# Entry
Amino acid sequence: MNPGDQIPEWKLPITPTLVVSTALATRDFQDVHHDRDLAVKRGSKDIFLNILTTTGLVQRYVGEWASKQVGERYQVLECALRLGAPAYPYDELSFTGTVKEIEGDALTIDVVGAVSLGNHVNATVKIARNA
# Structure
């Protein structure tokens, strides 16, 4: 494993059930995440993923790769992200990642999650190998 190495792409279909169930599971009761009519009334095209769901998906993407490449025993040290284009139902969220830096037992990975409107999330995740 070296800086510049690519993580295999992961494509996730965004369904209304994914948007609503993950919003409720994260106790986010903002209507724009579960009520289409109110989301549209507030200026959105549709309901959309919340930031907690996006954070979890970023960590899942890195985590599934890390468990295979680094081993089951790893720890997420940092996860910084910035949201961009909304992730609406009936679109696809495509994650790509690049190993940015390796420092001792710590790896920093740049992650992009893109939808048809552009980048939904840009993230940097730092993980560490645990003994």
The domain at 6-129 is CATH 3.10.129.10 (Thiol Ester Dehydrase; Chain A).
